[in-house]
Known about the structure:
Oligomer: single chain
Strand order of the largest sheet: 1-2
Number of strands: 2
Radius of gyration: 19 Å
Number of helices: 2
Amino acid sequence: MIQKSRRLVEVIDRILDxxxxxxxxxxxxxxxxxxxxxxxxxxxxxVETYLKYAEAIGLTAKVRKPGMRRPxxxxx
Length: 76
């Protein structure tokens, strides 16, 4: 039992360290008319890992880092 829980902890640690991304797209059409469209992206990672990779692909421009001032004229 201890061995199984140790493996689980190692798996969770690896997932949080490296991260996992699952992209899914579902489209339902009938006679060329789109009835339903679902797009989902699920990210499982530690905050540190997510921010590191999000910064690399330019997703952090929308997020203010702690201690940074808000730009003048910004409503957020």
